[in-house]
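Limitations
The C-alpha cells in this dataset are predictions for the assembled complex, not deposited experimental models. Users should treat interface geometry with appropriate caution, especially where small molecules or nucleic acid strands are included. An illustrative entry is reproduced here so readers can see what is and is not provided.
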Amino acid sequence: MTDQWQVAGRNFTSRLIIGTGKYKSFEQNAAAVEASGAEIVTVAVRRVNIADPKQPMLTDFIDPRKITYLPNTAGCFTAEDAIRTLRLAREAGGWTLVKLEVLGEAKTLYPDMIETLRATEILATEGFEPMVYCADDPIAAKKLEDAGAVAIMPLGAPIGSGLGLQNQVMIRLIVENAGVPVLVDAGVGTASDAAVAMELGCDGVLMNTAIAEAKDPILMARAMKAAVESGRLAYRAGRMGKRLYADPSSPLAGLI
Amino acid sequence: MVYDDTLSITVNGEHRRIVKGMTVAELALELGLEPTRVAVERNMEVVPRSTLGEVRIEDGDDFEIVTFVGGG
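Predicted assembly:
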C-alpha cells in the first residue's frame, strides 16, 4: 500500500517539497529536483527582465506540467503585498494552491502572524488554497486552519539558517492538533533534521538552502529523499520507549 | 503635454512610450515576452490572461509584468 498524503484534494507520494532558489544553474536545480523525488517545488514571483526577455526561464528546465509549482510570497511584509503577489501568481500559473508567507522583519524572516492570519482569511475567500508558513504556535496554527489554510507550515528554525528543529515540542503539539497537513518549512540543515521532522509526525518537509548550499546539492537531494522516507517509516513503525538505563538485548538465561 | 500618436506608460517601474491603440498582448510581444508565460497587473488590478488581447492601453497606465523564478 502506498503511503500518500493529500493537500487541498491533491494526492502526492513524495513528502519532500524543495525550493528553486540559490542554485548555481537551472541545470543543477533540475537535477536536484530529480534526485529529491519532489513532486512539488516552490517558486517566487518576480518582474520579468525586460532588458533581456530571451534569457532562459525556470519553466524551461522544470516542467510545470510534471512538477507542481507552489508560488510563494517571499519578500512580502504585509498581507496586501502577499495577496497582490498571489493574485498575479494565480494568473501566471492558472492554479490556486499557493504558499503564503508574510514576514515580520528582514533579519530573522520570522513570520508576522497577525498579517499572515489576515492574508489567509482574504485568500480563502478569494478561492485560494494557501499552504501557510507560520510560527511554531499551536494556537495560531489552529486559527490559520480555521481561516482556510490547507496546510500548516511552521518553521523549525529561521529561514536559511540550517540550525535544525529547535522546537520539537511545539511542532509535535501542532501536529497533534491539526486537521490539515503539517510540514516543517525552514530550518532544516542536514538529513537528520528532515528525519526528525518526519518522526514527529509531520506530513512533509519543505527545504531549499539545505540542498542548494550543500557542496554537492544533487547528492544532498538524494540524502533528503532518503531521510524523509526513513523518518516517515520510523513514525509509522512507532519508536521504542526510552529508558534511563541499559536493557540487554541478549538473553540472560543460559549464560555460561 | 505631447501631442502625437504615443502614450506614456510605466512597465515594471520604467517609463516607456508606446503607440496609441495597442493592446496589452501586443505590448508583451513588443517587449519580447510570450503572453502565455507572464502575468500582467495594470494599475494594481490583474488583467486576466484571456483578455490580454482585448484590453487597450491608456495613457498613464502602470504595468507590472511578472513570471515565476527560482525561490524557496
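Some entries come with short summary sentences. For this one: Chain B has a mean pLDDT of 92.
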